[in-house]
């Protein structure tokens, strides 16, 4: 039997003598050739919210994984509340009072909320008894922090905001005094994010120390007390949040000055339609309606952005328009070709008629990880004459073509022989975008173009999308990043549960309104 | 008189159903523990076969059914640990490992059997005190006189050997362990999302090893039953695919103990009917070829798997080795 402290009762106050909640000294971690963390020194004051920012691959997640016992540091020391701690597993981290809310929730979807909270913190070998105890403690906790979650609901059926609260409850139930949140707002609507921040504030007021990892600088400015910036595995700055600005932080993250991106919005009411969707309805294998009777159009020379929380039908829409799924009912006209449930066009034919698709999930649909960059760079176009010689692929011309794409899109390292999986997310994405734009599309379907892509690459990707628009291509953009939607779109549609619940012009879109539309809360708010 | 005869026939068919179902039930529960933890177990067959051989051999040499049972459980558990080592520690392919164990068991039992006993791969026939013999329930004769329920208890429920009752009790115990205990909660979790288990501070490997060991013990009992309870010796390939049928039954049961039990009983029933119908002309149809009836359970497997049971939702992480490091 592991010893269980009394759950959720009087939380010890932070040590009075200003002891640090967490102190990291000279933490180093190397994965093969990659130095993920180099001599990290970090001091986190008790009872504060400490932000950690950095680009993808800067080493944020590695650092937090070391703190939570996923990995062991190669060298360096961890001190918790002033005492040296050896954290070799998650169990050690939990016993040291550390709780973590992972970016991808660590929940068993088929379990109830209660079972998820209990897992690993059961107080007796019999579940009934553990559940009775936990229920009382959890009701107390959720009241204290306004973290209401239906304890008997199946976790996988809850909205992500509530799943996240389940994760927080898990940590609190284990008496976490230090809470680490890894990119917590990536899956939330702006309103849900605000709600989360209120909870974090309440936790802080009770003396909980919070570490917030994010790449959204605005959140750092809004809620943190102190902020550290990681770049290439090193901490380049730690300062009071009040003393800095988003621009300064962005510069520290990237290591150079960034131009603020803004693009001209266009409005050509007379342009012809590149995409026209009429009363499209799509059901999935289980018979659930993924797209519910939607109609819209995208004109040539226009970017239409689809905003919405992930999982509201955007992915299905992209796949239907790209010919991967067939429309259930209704029809659409894409680049002059009519598609109905009876006359579908295969993805291969779509490519031939000038409809190019940059898929949301690049590792599943965009490229093949074990293929070389050259092979991935011709996927879908491998039967083109120039890539073939009799019945063989012409490797040399494929490599040459790939090299050209890599130069045009600044793919690094520019080595066509390297395996696709060896490139960073941003460079994989640039390669896919290059492949599709090389075809000079008349219609471009883009999903999550900058998911997991670092700031430097985002600039280039956005630039390229604008360029193809200006070349009179009709662009449909799906993204869960509101900033991205607002930066690029000439017109914005908001999807909620498969329906289009709102439309705005890109030039006068504002975040609050879009956020309310994404939560389908316009009527209530008005 | 005629109806009584029919009742007799029905009851003795049910009686046979229980006897035939016993190894299926034990193996299905074994598979349930293993697969709920995320380890595919097609080696039920091989473990049961090797356990049957061990039990037959030990019973022949020592004359003790209890030592035979211990030997059966031991060898099956050793094979389980081998499967565990391949799948959990070295993160190998679970189907390949299971297949290897089946091939190993199939070959090695015959080789060892011929080397040790020189009876063409069989173990020597056992005397009854070296076997698990039928037990009569207490007061069964008095109970048997009760109307309706009496004959049922006397003919169907009473008069089996100990291991049949062990199999029947194994089902509620499995249910209780899986749904009502801390171990069960963790077992169900680790088959769905091992990362969640790991981050909750529980060792995924240890949990999975525990699950495969339980599977080994249960398969060991099943094998022992075949060799020294249902039969009086080990015969080569005596499991004859029952491990796979049990696996199929467990999948029909959607990885749940009670539905899995029902599926096992259904297969057992079909088998029992097949035996009874041999050479018996059916009204209106005539004599059905034996082969067709014997094929019934297998045909049913295919038909049911092809869609009659609806979508069988396996534990999500099944078959995927758990790797913590990138």
What does this structure look like?
The complex is a heterodimer of chains A (526) and B (326). Chain A has helices spanning 60-67, 90-95, 113-118, 127-145, 160-173, 190-205, 217-223, 246-254, 314-321, 347-352, 362-366, 373-376, 395-408, 425-437, 455-470, 482-488, 511-518, 522-525; strands at 22-31, 34-44, 49-54, 75-80, 83-84, 98-101, 178-182, 209-214, 226-231, 234-240, 273-283, 289-299, 302-307, 329-334, 337-339, 355-358, 388-389, 392-393, 443-447, 474-478, 491-496, 499-505. Chain A is α/β, with parallel strands linked by helices and 526 residues long. Chain A is globular and about 65 Å long. Residues 1-17 of chain A have low confidence and may be disordered. With 326 residues, chain B is mainly α. Chain B has a single domain, classed as ABC transporter involved in vitamin B12 uptake, BtuC, CATH 1.10.3470. Chain B is built from 13 helices and two strands; from the N terminus they run ααααααααααααββα. A two-stranded antiparallel sheet of chain B has the order 1-2. In chain B, strand 1 and strand 2 (286-287) form a beta hairpin. In chain B, helix 1 crosses helix 6 (149-157), helix 3 runs antiparallel to helix 10 and helix 7 crosses helix 8 (182-192). The longest helix of chain B has 35 residues, at 2-36. Chain B starts with a helix and ends in an 18-residue tail after the last helix. Chain A binds chain B through residues 31, 68, 70-71, 89-91, 93-95, 100, 102, 106-111, 115-116, 118-122, 124-128, 130, 170, and chain B through 179-186, 188-189, 192-193, 195-203, 316, 324-326.
Count of DSSP-assigned helices of chain A: 18
Q: What's the gyration radius of chain B in Å?
A: 21 Å
Assign the CATH superfamily of the largest domain in chain A: P-loop containing nucleotide triphosphate hydrolases
Average predicted local confidence, pLDDT of chain B? 90
CATH topology of the largest domain in chain A: Rossmann fold
Biggest sheet strand line-up of chain A: 6-7-8-3-9-10
Distance between the termini of chain A: 55 Å
What summary fits the major beta sheet of chain B?
A: 2 strands, antiparallel
Q: Which radius of gyration of chain A do the C-alpha atoms yield?
A: 25 Å
Count of separate DSSP helical elements of chain B: 13
Task: Based on Cα principal axes, name the global outline of chain A.
Answer: globular
Order of helices and strands of chain B: HHHHHHHHHHHHEEH
Q: Report the sheet with the most strands of chain A, covering strand number, pairing sense and barrel closure.
A: 6 strands, mixed
Pairing-aware structural class of the strands and helices of chain A? alpha/beta
């Amino acid at each position: 039997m592991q010893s269980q402290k009394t759950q959720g009762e009087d939380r010890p106050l932070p040590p009075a003598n200003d002891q640090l909640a967490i102190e990291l000294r000279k933490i180093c971690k190397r994965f093969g050739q990659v130095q993920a963390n180099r001599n990290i020194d970090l001091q986190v004051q008790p009872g504060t919210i400490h932000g950690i920012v950095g680009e993808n691959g800067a080493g944020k997640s590695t650092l937090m994984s070391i703190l939570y016992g996923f990995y062991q540091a190669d060298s360096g020391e961890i001190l918790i509340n002033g005492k040296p701690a050896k954290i070799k597993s998650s169990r050690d981290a939990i016993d040291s009072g550390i709780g973590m809310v992972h970016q991808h929730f660590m929940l068993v979807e088929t379990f109830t909320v209660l079972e998820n909270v209990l897992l690993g913190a059961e107080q007796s070998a019999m579940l009934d008894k553990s559940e009775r105890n936990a229920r009382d403690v959890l009701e107390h906790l959720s009241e204290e922090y306004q973290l209401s979650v239906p304890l008997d609901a199946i976790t996988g059926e809850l909205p992500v905001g509530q799943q996240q609260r389940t994760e927080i409850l898990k940590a609190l139930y284990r008496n976490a005094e230090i809470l680490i949140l890894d990119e917590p707002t990536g899956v939330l609507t702006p309103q849900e994010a605000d709600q989360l921040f209120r909870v974090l504030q309440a936790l802080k007021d009770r003396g909980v120390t919070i570490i917030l990892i994010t790449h959204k600088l605005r959140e750092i400015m809004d809620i943190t007390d102190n902020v550290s910036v990681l770049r290439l595995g090193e901490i380049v700055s730690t300062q009071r949040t009040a003393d800095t600005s988003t621009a300064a932080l962005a510069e520290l993250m990237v290591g150079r000055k960034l131009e603020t991106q803004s693009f001209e919005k266009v409005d050509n009411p007379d342009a012809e339609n590149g995409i026209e969707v009429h009363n499209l309805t799509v059901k999935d294998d289980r018979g659930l309606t993924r797209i519910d009777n939607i109609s819209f159009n995208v004109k040539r020379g226009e970017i239409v952005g689809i905003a919405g929380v992930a999982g509201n039908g955007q992915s299905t829409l992209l796949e239907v328009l790209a010919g991967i799924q067939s429309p259930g009912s209704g029809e659409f006209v894409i680049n002059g070709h009519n598609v109905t449930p009876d006359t579908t066009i295969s993805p291969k034919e779509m490519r031939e008629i000038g409809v190019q698709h940059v898929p949301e999930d690049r590792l599943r649909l965009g490229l093949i990880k074990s293929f070389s960059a050259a092979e991935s760079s011709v996927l879908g176009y491998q039967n083109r004459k120039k890539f073939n010689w009799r019945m063989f692929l012409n490797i040399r011309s494929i490599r040459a073509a790939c090299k050209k794409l890599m130069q045009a899109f600044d793919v690094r390292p520019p080595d066509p022989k390297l395996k696709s999986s060896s490139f960073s997310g941003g460079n994989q994405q640039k390669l896919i975008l290059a492949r599709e734009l090389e075809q000079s599309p008349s219609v471009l379907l883009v999903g999550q173009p900058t998911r997991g892509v670092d700031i430097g690459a985002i600039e280039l990707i956005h630039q390229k999308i604008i360029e193809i628009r200006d070349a009179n291509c009709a662009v449909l953009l799906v993204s869960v990043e509101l900033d991205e939607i607002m930066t690029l779109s000439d017109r914005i549609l908001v999807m909620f549960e498969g329906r289009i619940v709102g439309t705005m012009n890109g030039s006068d879109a504002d975040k609050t309104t879009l956020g309310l539309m994404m939560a389908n809360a316009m009527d209530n708010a008005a | 008189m005629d109806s009584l005869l029919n009742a007799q026939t029905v009851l003795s068919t049910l009686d046979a159903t229980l006897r035939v179902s016993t190894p299926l039930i034990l193996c299905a529960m074994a598979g349930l523990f293993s697969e709920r933890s995320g380890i595919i177990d097609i080696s039920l067959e091989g473990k049961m076969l090797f356990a049957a051989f061990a039990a037959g051999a030990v019973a022949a040499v020592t004359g003790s059914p209890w030592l035979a049972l211990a030997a059966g459980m031991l060898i099956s558990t050793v094979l389980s640990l081998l499967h565990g080592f391949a799948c959990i520690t070295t993160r190998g392919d679970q189907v390949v490992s299971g297949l290897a164990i089946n091939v190993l068991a199939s070959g090695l039992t015959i080789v060892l059997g011929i080397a040790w006993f020189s009876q063409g791969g069989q173990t020597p026939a056992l005397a009854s005190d070296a076997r698990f013999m039928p037990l009569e329930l207490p007061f069964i004769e008095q109970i048997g006189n009760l109307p309706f329920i009496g004959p049922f208890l006397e003919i169907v429920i009473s008069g089996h050997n100990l291991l049949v009752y062990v199999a029947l009790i194994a089902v509620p115990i499995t249910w209780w362990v899986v749904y009502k205990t801390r171990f069960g909660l963790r077992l169900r979790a680790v088959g769905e999302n091992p990362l969640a288990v790991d981050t909750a501070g529980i060792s995924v490997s240890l949990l999975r090893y525990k699950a495969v060991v339980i599977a080994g013990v249960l398969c060991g009992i099943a094998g022992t039953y075949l060799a020294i309870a249902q039969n009086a010796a080990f015969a080569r390939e005596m499991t004859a695919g029952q491990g796979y049928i049990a696996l199929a039954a467990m999948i029909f049961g959607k990885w749940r103990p009670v539905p899995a039990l029902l599926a096992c009983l259904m297969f057992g029933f079909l088998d029992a009917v097949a035996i009874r119908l041999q050479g018996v002309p059916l009204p209106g149809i005539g004599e059905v070829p034996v082969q067709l009836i014997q094929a019934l359970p297998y045909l049913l497997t295919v038909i049911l798997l092809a869609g009659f049971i609806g979508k069988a939702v396996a534990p999500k992480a099944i078959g995927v080795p758990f790797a913590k490091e990138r």
